From TrEMBL:
InterPro entries: Rieske_2Fe-2S, Rieske_2Fe-2S_sf, Rieske_Fe-S_prot, Rieske_Fe-S_prot_C, TAT_signal, Ubiq_cytC_Rdtase_Fe-S_su_TAT, Ubiquinol_cyt_c_Rdtase_Fe-S-su
Places the protein is found: Cell membrane
Enzyme Commission number, as recorded: 7.1.1.8
Other known facts: The Rieske protein is a high potential 2Fe-2S protein.
Cofactor(s) in the UniProt record: [2Fe-2S] cluster
Function recorded in the entry: Component of the ubiquinol-cytochrome c reductase complex (complex III or cytochrome b-c1 complex), which is a respiratory chain that generates an electrochemical potential coupled to ATP synthesis.
Name of the molecule in the record: Ubiquinol-cytochrome c reductase iron-sulfur subunit
Catalytic activity field: a quinol + 2 Fe(III)-[cytochrome c](out) = a quinone + 2 Fe(II)-[cytochrome c](out) + 2 H(+)(out)
Annotated membrane topology: Single-pass membrane protein
Gene3D superfamilies noted in UniProt: Rieske [2Fe-2S] iron-sulphur domain, Single helix bin
Length: 190
């Protein structure tokens, strides 16, 4: 590249002295330099975009659900946000399944919001879909709202026992994150 540039410089100087060719060479040299600079900048950006092992570990959360009794919920943290894991009672499952989903603002069945064989385990983000407050209902003694699930005190959104929005300003059900059972008693979220 350096040889080529030197040759081009001397050829330009020899062939013409009117400054036009020389300017052409300078433009080409400038574009080449920009191309090299561009590569140098792009590579670190690409390597930064690949998540490190630390980031991957932090992006998933394991929760042992074995101690959660029917009717109880626990709060965990997933990607720095509250996560609710709730074991439904038979009555709460029945109440969720008795709802005509066509009447819902965000129609979903309990089955669609849980894992096969684990319909009693409701895993949702603890983040109201209105403006992001943390709803009540996961901790012992907290109000659960008119539909027995969760209640957001910020502006009065009521979620049912499947975490579906039933009343109030929230536009959607509590989000069910990506998760799977890695054993009968442990879930991995994310
Ligand atoms: S943030 Fe929950 S109702 Fe507004």
């Amino acid at each position: 590249m350096a040889d080529t540039a030197a040759t081009a410089t001397s050829e330009t100087a020899v062939v013409t002295d009117d400054g036009i060719r020389r300017r052409d060479f300078l433009d080409i040299a400038a574009v080449s330099a920009a191309g090299i600079g561009g590569l140098a900048v792009v590579y670190p950006l690409i390597s930064q975009m690949a998540p490190s092992k630390d980031v991957l570990a932090a992006s998933s959360t394991e929760v042992d659900v074995s101690a959660i009794e029917p009717g109880q919920a626990i709060k965990a943290v997933f990607r720095k946000q509250p996560l609710f894991v709730r074991r439904l009672t038979g009555a709460e499952i029945q109440a969720a399944n008795a709802v005509d989903t066509s009447s819902l603002r965000d129609p979903q069945t309990l089955e669609e919001r849980t894992k096969e064989g684990h319909e009693d385990m409701l895993v949702t983000m603890g983040v109201c879909t209105h403006l992001g407050c943390v709803p009540l209902g996961a901790a012992e003694g907290e109000v659960k709202g008119e539909y027995g699930g969760y209640f957001c005190p910020c502006h009065g959104s009521h979620y049912d026992t499947a975490g579906r929005i039933r009343k109030g300003p929230a536009p959607a059900n509590l989000e069910v994150p990506e998760y799977e059972f890695t054993s009968d008693t442990v879930i991995q979220v994310g």
